[in-house]
Each structure stands twice: as structure tokens, then as C-alpha cells.
Design goal:
Elements: E1 3-13, E2 19-29, E3 33-37, H1 44-51, E4 59-64, E5 67-68, H2 73-78, E6 80-83, H3 95-105, H4 112-121, H5 137-149, E7 155-159, H6 167-182, E8 186-190, H7 194-200, E9 203-208, E10 211-217, H8 218-225, E11 227-234, H9 243-247, E12 251-252, E13 258-264, H10 272-281, E14 286-293, H11 296-303, H12 319-326
Parallel strand pairs: 3-8, 3-9, 6-7, 7-8
Antiparallel strand pairs: 1-2, 1-4, 4-5, 9-10, 11-13, 11-14, 12-13
């Protein structure tokens, strides 16, 4: 795979503000889906804004499709489609004209057949003549995606694309994302719905306090940081948890019929065989045993453990540029 986005030692220091990005380096391969995770103010929107050419970095370089975003910005920007967090549409313009206008901004020739294909894929064709102010929030967000795809970009940035969208609509939108991946579009998304990242992403990056903590394949990340939880269901309830089991970190459920045990999948010895032998030695009869892999949410929380500050969001300064770019 060739890297379609190459970020090298990128930093951003706002005047009289926080350091939004601190020496961030990453590469994104053509055709993959990358999820960027992080708490509010972590620097995700600032990173996207710089790659899209909307915010000037304080240091470092970014190349998109081999084009430097500062010295060859026109060529770089043509490769990118952006769906911002905020819904910014001209309220009295029709859906089709809004998408046509965005295509024209990139200097692409008229192609209503392609735009029809995009609108149909997003279930918007029957709304093509409706003013955007008449649409629901979910439909407006689909229009933003259509606008971002209007000039046939090779890269699509989705900044919280399903925020405020109902579950059914969210599923439909991710089906569109999956089709875009099959078409070879590189997709970078930020999301607070961690199950989406867990389901869709090839690689996951975690950003906090302007630093890229990691960028790893999803399965590798889950294997390295994930833990498993063993549940042992007993034939008969316990009056109390035996001290020998409590010392080993086991817990007893409220109904006193299930024992819980967390173990590290990377350990050479998980201790499960010894645990089952100890249960037999205590005269406890096991009815069933099950395991559960920790979720991406649990992995994420283990990486970003400290509570968020209540101060201003470090990404707030970047969001006006995103609004302006999609107005």
C-alpha cells in the first residue's frame, strides 16, 4: 500500500491559546479506513483542519497524494472531501443545486449523472428539489456527505458524521461508507460512537492533549490492550466469597451464583486452569464457563484515563474554518 497522507512532526500552537497538536506523525494508506479517537479538545479537529488546508500549522509537513498542503495546496485539496461536525447549509437552496455548487467550487465540470448516483446512494434523490431547510437533521447530514463527494475525491474526512443521527439512519450511512471503501476511497473519521470505530476501522489512532498516543491496526490494538473477563456460573449459590478466591481478584455476583475473573490475554499463563482446579478443591461445582473480550470503549478509557478539564475545547479555534469551507 502507498501512503496517500503523510504527516510528519506536525504541531499547532494557537496565539494565547493551548498547543493543539504536539509533534504528530502518521501515515494513512490508500483505501483504508482510519478512526481517530480522543476526548473533546484532544486535537482531532485541528489535525483534520490542517490536513484539509483550512488551518496553518506551526511546524511540520503534510503531504496529500504526494502534494505538500502549503506549497501545492490546490492539487492536494482536490483530492479531499470533508464532512464537518456542524451542519452548515444554505437554507433556501435545493439539495441538487447545493451539491452542484460545491462540485463547481473544485473546478470539476458539470456531471449530473454522477451527482444523481451520489444522491441515490444516500437516499436523497427524491429530495433533490427540496430546500435544505425543509430536511431533517439526518437528511441534512447526508447532504453534507453528498457535497463532500461531489468532486469525486480520493480521500473523505468524516468529523463526527453520525452525531445526532438515529440508529437506523446511522446504519444506512455506514453502508454508504463501506461502499466507498470498496470503491477505493480512503476514509478518515472521528467519532464518539466507539462501536462504529470497532466495526468499521482498519486502524485506530488515539489522540489526547495534542499527542498521537498510538496508531495501530484494530485487531492488534484489541489484542495488545484488551483483556478478557471470565464468568464462572456455579451450580449452587455461595454464602460468601472464599478468602482464597478474593485474594486472587475474583468477584462474586449479587445473586451469588457467578464468579468473575479478569485476565490478560498476553500473559503466558492466564491462571484459568489453576482457578478451576482451586474451585474443585473448594468443593464448588461449575455449571458453565464463558469469556468476554473487552470492548474498544474499555481499551480507549484505559488509554485516556484522566478526566477531561472543564476548560475551553482546544479544537474550537479550528471549527470556524470547517464551517467556512462547507458553507
Amino acid at each position: 500500500m502507498n501512503a496517500i497522507i503523510d504527516v510528519d512532526r506536525l504541531s499547532k500552537q494557537y496565539v494565547n491559546g493551548p498547543k493543539a497538536l504536539d509533534d504528530v506523525s502518521l501515515q494513512i494508506d490508500e483505501g483504508e479506513i482510519v478512526a481517530l479517537l480522543g476526548p473533546n479538545g484532544a486535537g482531532k479537529t485541528t489535525l483534520i483542519s490542517i490536513i484539509c488546508g483550512l488551518v496553518v500549522p506551526s511546524g511540520g509537513t503534510v503531504r496529500v497524494g504526494g502534494h505538500d498542503i502549503r506549497t501545492d495546496w490546490r492539487a492536494a485539496r482536490k483530492l479531499i472531501g470533508l464532512v464537518p461536525q456542524e451542519i452548515t447549509l444554505e437554507p433556501f437552496e435545493t439539495v441538487l443545486n447545493s451539491v452542484r455548487f460545491t462540485r463547481g467550487l473544485y473546478g470539476a465540470p458539470p456531471d449530473d449523472a454522477y451527482l444523481e448516483q451520489v444522491l441515490r446512494s444516500l437516499a436523497l434523490w427524491d429530495k433533490k428539489d427540496a430546500a435544505t431547510r425543509e430536511l431533517s437533521g439526518g437528511m441534512k447530514r447526508r447532504v453534507l456527505i453528498a457535497k463532500a463527494l461531489s468532486h469525486q475525491p480520493k480521500i473523505l474526512f468524516l468529523d463526527e458524521p453520525t452525531a445526532g443521527v438515529d440508529v437506523a439512519l446511522r446504519r444506512e450511512m455506514w453502508q454508504v461508507v463501506e461502499q466507498l471503501r470498496r470503491d477505493g476511497v480512503t476514509i478518515i473519521l472521528t467519532t464518539h460512537y466507539l462501536e462504529e470505530a470497532e466495526e468499521m476501522a482498519d486502524r485506530i489512532g488515539v489522540i489526547n492533549h495534542g499527542k498521537l498516543l498510538l496508531m495501530q491496526p484494530k485487531d492488534e490494538l484489541m489484542g495488545e490492550f484488551g483483556k478478557k473477563h471470565l464468568t464462572v456460573e456455579l451450580q449452587e449459590p455461595l454464602d460468601a466469597l472464599p478468602a482464597s478466591l478474593a485474594e486472587r481478584g475474583l468477584t462474586l455476583s449479587d445473586d451469588r451464583r457467578r464468579l468473575g475473573y479478569d485476565y490478560d490475554t498476553r500473559s503466558e499463563r492466564t491462571g484459568i486452569a489453576r482457578l478451576l482446579a482451586d474451585l474443585a478443591g473448594l468443593g464448588l461445582q461449575v455449571r458453565d464457563v464463558s469469556t468476554k473480550q473487552s470492548s474498544l470503549e474499555e481499551v480507549f478509557m484505559s488509554l485516556v484515563a484522566e478526566p477531561d478539564d472543564e476548560g475551553p475545547d482546544r479544537d474550537d479555534a479550528a471549527r470556524p474554518a470547517l464551517k467556512e469551507a462547507t458553507a
